[in-house]
Amino acid sequence: MEETAKKDIGKLLDDREGMDRALARAVRQAVLQHKRAGNPVAIWRDGKVVWVNPDEIELSDENS
Length: 64
Hints:
- Helices cover about 45% and strands about 15% of the residues.
- It is α+β, with helices and mostly antiparallel strands.
- The protein has one domain (about 5-55).
- The protein has a two-stranded antiparallel ribbon with strand order 1-2.
- It is elongated and about 40 Å long.
- The chain starts with 8 loop residues before the first helix and ends in a 12-residue tail after the last strand.
């Protein structure tokens, strides 16, 4: 394994803000893929799971 590929998992887990950013990017990408494919997404709204149709999915322009 390359030296640059080796990461200290403890240091990665300590970077909470970095983890939050990575998770937000991953969720945005998954939702965008659903929208492009014409698939609905399930979200939590008012204490219930609801389906959002692809034409109703709104994404911000952040990290496009």
